[in-house]
Design brief:
The complex is a heterodimer of chains A (262) and B (282). Chain A is α+β, with helices and mostly antiparallel strands and 262 residues long. Chain A has 8 helices and 10 strands. In chain A, strands 2-1-10-5-6 form a 5-stranded mixed beta sheet. Chain B has helices at residues 21-46, 120-148, 150-155, 159-173, 185-208, 211-216, 219-223, 227-255, 257-265, and strands spanning 15-17, 50-52, 64-73, 76-83, 86-89, 95-99, 102-106, 268-270. Classes of the chains: A alpha+beta (262), B alpha+beta (282).
Chain lengths: 262, 282
């Protein structure tokens, strides 16, 4: 008898099903494509295809379009966290980032700890590029920084290294297990790309806090969410498994594609 | 009226094999792809429901040409759609609409997006899957249609078609259709505009928005007027494709839905009279 549906419950169920069909055209697909579902993992293969095709089409140092300074018509629009509330960051920020250190570690022959002054003392690269946000908007700005390839050359990555993981000061979300810090990762082709820089300057000034001071990543052939702000550590790794949700970035753990060249 | 009953013409002609398997399979794959591309595209648009001209989006200057926005007014939340500076109240549909019993600010309403709730990440995952499917099937269709003569015979208007154009427009205006094996000139022009102009333009403007492809082909956003203009064109062509779909459906209903559906599912089409049949062609 346990499986017998009362007529009343059946009718309620039928009404609920009917009204949900009538009310909502498109939520019919909502459950199918939820993060982690089998259907979604098939659909996500399209991004792997995009990644492979772009890596095939683009020579590893094909440059993103650069613009003239006259095309900088507005301040760089900040997005995401614009004022980290983290105690460590606030103390450092109050001290003008004199105590800031960039750590380079992981699969490298020579781990490094670099001050801002040391980073600014090496040959810089300046580029006027267009920042494309995943939301759809674009903004042109001038970025100045140290090429990541230069930093990697100093640290000498080991053979096994496949990704560069960027760890950040800012807390982007709070979960049951505590504060979630922003992090990102790119492959070593993008890490060694001539336009990939750790930027400390924006439009001729010191990088503002809203845009990621004292140091943020620029990966010009991908979307904005790849370009981690408030970076304190670059770690070279073989696999992305050990970080956050294992997808290679905060937004990736929340369903966004790891490769953001599209 | 019954003399022109399109599904059972009094002088029923023979069944002719009109659509090859290539055409039928690719047609249905496009139908599925475009359905998901449209509804996930509106989800993606909602993440920043403003369109601009040029390379960048004006936040400190104004280069917007289209936007949907919401505002709180004394009468409650109001949604607006602004086109080239002209603002229209579109409360309930665009700008502000109901979602799970609440009026919320969003570009297109929940019933027009996949997923129905705000979820840019999932919208993108689905969008790019079907974008690949569309590109793949379009390439297959072009190859097959060039090889089997479908493109030359049914898509590109010939000299006779050009001569028939005024008459065909007059016939369509009177909803008088000729059930022949061959397409009329307006049909050819409609399909050519979708297959040769709109879908390729959709793919090119889509690629022009990709920062990776920009590095491979910097000339692409350039010739389209900049990345943000490409995004605007992508949106406008979407609207044109929706327009095509509406006309496509109306024409099927007007010309005899049973015969038209049989033709695009099985390939077989009943011509209006034996005179029109050219069954030997396939």
């Amino acid at each position: 008898m346990a499986f017998q549906l009362s007529r009343r419950r059946l009718l309620t169920g039928a009404t609920a099903a009917g009204s949900s069909l009538a009310l909502s055209g498109c939520d019919a697909f909502d459950g199918l494509t939820r993060n982690g579902s089998a259907v979604r993992s098939v659909l996500e293969q399209a991004n792997s295809l995009t990644y492979r095709v772009q890596r095939m089409l683009l020579s590893s140092d094909a440059l993103a379009q650069e613009f003239s300074e006259s095309e900088i018509r507005q301040p760089q629009r900040p997005n995401g966290v614009t004022q980290p509330a983290d105690a460590l960051y606030r103390t450092m920020s109050a001290g003008g980032f004199a105590d800031y250190r960039l750590t380079v570690k992981g699969l490298v022959e020579k781990p490094l700890t670099l001050t801002l002054a040391e980073l600014q003392a090496v040959p810089a690269r300046t580029q006027v590029t267009r920042h494309d946000c995943v939301e759809g908007w674009s903004c042109i700005a001038k970025w100045t920084g140290v090429p990541l390839a230069y930093v990697l050359d100093q640290a000498r990555p080991k053979e096994a290294a496949r990704f560069a993981v960027f760890q950040c000061f800012d807390t982007i979300a709070k979960s049951l297990s505590g504060e979630v810090k922003y992090y990102e990762s790119i492959d070593l082709i993008d890490a060694r790309h001539p336009q990939t820089i750790l930027a400390y300057g924006l439009n001729g000034e010191a990088l503002p806090v809203a845009n990621g001071a004292p140091l943020r990543l620029r990966v010009e052939r991908q979307l904005g969410y790849k370009m981690a702000k408030y970076v304190h550590t670059v770690e070279l790794v073989e696999s992305l498994d050990g970080y956050g949700g294992g997808k290679g970035g905060y937004w990736e753990d929340n369903g966004y594609d790891w490769f953001a060249g599209i | 009226m019954h003399e022109r009953d399109d599904d059972h013409p009094p002088t029923a002609g023979v069944l002719v094999y009109r659509q090859s398997g290539w055409t039928r399979v690719t047609h249905w794959l496009w139908a599925v792809s475009l359905f998901f591309l449209l509804l996930t595209g509106l989800q993606i648009f909602n993440a920043h429901p403003t369109l601009y001209v040029g390379d960048q989006s004006g936040f400190s200057f104004d280069n917007a040409v289209f936007s949907m926005s919401g505002e709180n007014t004394p009468q409650g939340p109001a949604g607006y759609t602004t086109i080239l500076g002209y603002r229209f109240d579109t409360t309930g549909v665009f700008g502000v609409s109901e979602s799970r019993g609440q009026m919320i600010g969003r570009g297109f309403p929940a019933w027009a997006t996949i997923p129905s709730h705000v979820d840019l990440a999932t919208g993108r995952v689905i969008h790019f899957f079907f974008a690949w499917l569309l590109v793949g099937t379009l390439l297959i269709w072009f190859a097959a249609s060039l090889a089997n003569g479908h493109f030359r015979r049914d898509i590109v208007p010939n000299r006779e078609d050009v001569r028939n154009l005024p008459k065909d427009i007059a016939d369509h205006a009177r909803l008088r259709f000729h059930h022949a094996r061959d397409y009329s000139v307006l049909q050819k022009l409609a399909y050519a505009s979708v297959l040769v102009v709109m879908l390729p333009l959709m793919i090119l403007t889509g690629l022009a928005m990709s920062p990776g492809m920009n590095a491979a082909m910097p000339w692409l956003p350039e010739i389209l007027g900049g990345r943000q203009t490409a995004r605007t064109i992508h949106f406008v062509v979407m609207a044109l494709l929706v327009g095509f779909f509406v006309v496509h459906m109306l024409m099927i209903l007007a010309a005899g839905p049973f015969n038209e559906m049989r033709s695009i599912i099985t390939g077989w089409y009943r011509t209006g009279s034996a005179r029109h049949a050219r069954s030997g062609e396939e």
